[in-house]
Amino acid sequence: TGGKALLTIDSATGKAPVNFGDISVGGLGGSTVTISADSEVLGRADEATLQVGLIGYDRTIATSAEYPADAPGKSVSTQTWNPVGGASVLTNAGQIGHDGGAGYTGTAAQVWVESVTTATATNSGSIFGSIGVNALSEKQGVETVSTNLDDVTQITTTTTTYTPVGGTASLLNSRLITGDASIAGATGTLTNNGVIRGSVHAGQSVSNHVTQSVDTVSQIGEDELLSVNPLFNQTYTVNQNALLGGAVKVDGAFVGIEDANGDPVKTSNIVATVNLNPGSVTVGGVHAGFDEETGERFTATRVNLVDNGWLGLNDDGVDTLKTAFATYDPAIRAAKD
C-alpha cells in the first residue's frame, strides 16, 4: 500500500527555470504532475529527467521442508512479485528542458510516465527532448525445489515464470516535442496534433516465458528456456494529425532470448492502427517489425492514409509544413522567415 504523490509547478514570473536538475514524483497510490504555461523545468542544457509514477511489487513467500527418517530431505520455496501502483498523469502546458533558441535542436530532456494500470501524458507546451508513456510491467514467480538435502547428491531445481501485466497508456501532444515519443501497454493511444521532430514508437518487448536451472553441489546450472506462455496482446492506435519529423515504428513482438534452435522467442501479439489523417505530414514513413529475408511480418499493422495526409515529403509537403506548423515549432518559424 502507499499514498499519492502530487506536484504542481506554477511559476509566477516565467522568466527563469524552476529547476535545472531531475524531478521524480512517485506514489504507489498514484502520481500526478502539472506544469503551468508560465513554468519551465529541467532547465540545464545537458540531460535531465522528469519521472512521473512508481511501480511497486507485492512479494509473497512460502517455504516447506520434509526430513523423513528413512529418506533424504526435500524443501520447496515459492516466491512471487506482483506489480502494483496507481495511475500516473502528466499535464504540461509549460516548458520541459532547455530551449536554446529558434535553431536549437537539443533533445536533452527525458520524460517518463509509468504505471501498471494507467499512464497518461498531455502536452500543450514544449518538451525539448523525448517522452515515454509506459503501462507495462511483469509478474515474476520463482519455485525452488531441493532434493537429497544435506547430501553430496543434492539437486536444486529453480523454475522462474515471467508473466506480462499491462494497463492503458495514452499520449496527447498538441504543441512541440523535439525528440521521440513512445507508448507501451496492453492498450495504447498516441495522438499528435502538434509537432514531434523525432519518431513515434509503439510497442515494447515483454518477458512471457518460463526458464529453469538445475544446480548440483559441484556445478551451477545455466538458466534455460523451458516453455513460452500464450502470446500477450498489445493493441495500439496512432492518430497522426499534424507533423512528425521521423517515422512511426511498431515493434516489440520478441524478447531478447532464443529457443533451442537459436531462433528469437516471440512473446507478444502486436496489433496497431496508424491513421495518417488529413493535413498531416509524416516525413519518415511507417515501419513495423518484419523479417528482411523472408518478408514475414511480426506485427499486424494497418496504415490508413486519409485524404490529403502526406506520407514522405516533397516541395508541396514542405510548403504545407511551413504554413501549417510554424506556430508550433520555433525552428519552422525561423526557416519560414
Features:
2 helices, mainly beta, 9-stranded parallel β-sheet, 337 residues, globular
Q: What's the topology here?
A:
Layout: E1 4-9, E2 23-25, E3 30-35, E4 40-41, E5 48-52, E6 56-66, E7 74-84, E8 88-92, E9 95-96, E10 109-114, E11 118-123, E12 126-127, E13 129-147, E14 155-166, E15 168-173, E16 176-177, E17 181-185, E18 187-192, E19 195-196, E20 200-202, E21 209-216, E22 224-228, E23 232-240, E24 243-244, E25 248-250, E26 254-258, E27 264-266, E28 268-276, E29 281-282, E30 286-288, E31 300-305, E32 310-311, H1 315-325, H2 330-336
Parallel strand pairs: 1-3, 2-5, 3-8, 4-9, 5-10, 8-11, 9-12, 10-13, 11-15, 12-16, 13-17, 15-18, 16-19, 17-20, 18-23, 19-24, 20-25, 23-28, 24-29, 25-30, 28-31, 29-32
Antiparallel strand pairs: 6-7, 7-13, 13-14, 14-21, 21-22, 26-27
Helix pairs in contact: 1-2
Kindly, what is the distance between the CA atoms of the first and last residues, rounded to a whole number of angstroms? 55 Å
Distinct helical segment count: 2
Unreliable runs, pLDDT <50, ≥5 residues?
Answer: none
Mean pLDDT: 92
Q: Mind describing the biggest β-sheet?
A: 13 strands, mixed
Proportion in β-strands: over 45%
Number of strands: 32
SSE-based structural type: mainly beta
Helix content: under 10%
Shape designation: globular
* Rg computed from alpha carbons, rounded to a whole number of angstroms: 24 Å
